Structure prediction request, 611 residues.
Amino acid sequence: MNLLQLHNATKQYGAKVLFDKARFAVNESEHVGVIGPNGAGKTTLFKILVGQESLDSGELTKANQLRIGYLEQESDWTLNMTAEDYLAEQCIKPIWDLKQIGKGLGLTEDHFQRQLTDLSGGYRMRMKLLYLIGLEPDLMLLDEPTNFLDLESILALEKFLIDYKGAFLLISHDREFLRRTTEYTLEVEGQEIIKFPGHIDDYFEQKEEVAKIKAQQASNQEAKRKHIQEFVDRFRAKATKAKQAQSRMKQLDKMEKIEIKALPVRSRINLPVPIQTGKEVLVIKDADLGYGDKTILNSVNLILERGSRLGVVGFNGAGKSTLLKSMAGRVPLIRGELKLGYQVEISYFAQHLTEDLLNEDTVLDALQRKAYRETTKQEILGIAGSLLFAGDDIHKKIKVLSGGEKTRVALGQILLQKKPVLLMDEPTNHLDFDTVNALAEALRHFAGTLIVVSHDRSFINRVSNKIIEIRNGRVEVYPGSYEDYLWSLEKGALKERYQVSDEIDQKVKAANNQNKETDKKFNYKEETKKISSEIKDLQKKIARAEELIASLTIKLDEQNTLLLTSQGQQAQAIAIESARISKNISEIEEKLIFNMENLDLKEKELATFKQ
Prediction:
């Protein structure tokens, strides 16, 4: 059943068309990721769906009594009530249930007893998310819900969304989060809104496949046009062939040209080469870090070497930002020593730096203001272009920029300083998917030293070669990638479980030894009958899988044949269906192999009983 449907929808601001005659539907229980570049219209689409903005033309239809919950990027609660009182008054879900969910999001009893206006931006956003969950809507619209969340809170939200029975649309640049929580992908780009089956990885595979097919179709058609044109040019003047030439001309005129849409401009960030430093970039020795008399991190000992790229992880409030501010000299040490190496200068990026931008500056003014003194205008324009400020965009004033655009300006300022050490606190917030990818690729090849705090697991994994974990006031360094760090954590967490398992195994072995005589009296006939039945079931499953593979293979061949004669939207739909069938075949083949292996084991087990 459709919860809502957009039909022939058009929306534009001035001369900029966000989408033109777009259409899509959201059905019950669908989990949909929404992606697209900044400024493509994702947030505008959400506002249209909840009635905050209207379409220029087209139609939006909703199911009767549809309840929609909307989590905006910016939370603006000014109510003079405690969080607990507000949630208890407004939400359908009981307050004790919400408090339990809130624990996973890092909310304590103290947060629930505070006035909403007293909560910081990050905790206000979490409380707003909890409020949305408490409304139990049929459809949730989530605009960058992982901003301001730490890893543990993201994992808790992830689990909630995976198990969520209702439908949701989710805007996020966090690829791992999208991959785990969604089953459809809605692309908002190039004045179109297109819904793809599958999560974010499936989406990219389908896009690549469609692009290849369209390119091949266009190439084949161009070759055919050329061949027909040569025939016409050669024989139109000959009386005996004139009729055939005329027929070919009509064929040529009727042939609809396949349009290969120009790919959108993709970000590519080229980092300037920084000054060469000594081997030891920064040394912290026996230091306590914090604010005034309040110690956040105890007895910190840390040596950063040239070329290190460290990802910093930990709970919100654990001290990640405190560590970076102390390294940058923004916050003095309470105790201990911090020493910078030879020729070391530090650039520090944090979200609040966008507040330091001057409203009347243009993008170009802002970048020039912070650039290294010997930086040429061409280099500045190069960085601006890599951050998607091209042409007249560099003359836009800061006051008219979106949050994501301001973040890109602040990033550009940091990159143009050409300093050999980059400290970056949540640099991906408010950036679109493409810019995050470009930044990750640039930082991965950065010739200097990098320390970055981010809640984006894919980003951290791509850019870091070491992990700093902050937990319970302590700083620990783990060599290797973020995936290696997670493996270490998992291994540690499972250690106790393995010990318990070993104890159980020993008890089972002892019990088995005591009961050997009893086992000899086991009812072999009953067990043989059971295994024989399981073998028959497996044989049926294998036969059914083989039938499905054969049927799907024929269907796939038919779809691929259709592709050769299809064009436009039809070709795209067929390509997507072909990709889906191929994936279905692969999944069934995996099940087939599993069942065949299982069958082999059961047959061997049966043979043992018959001996």
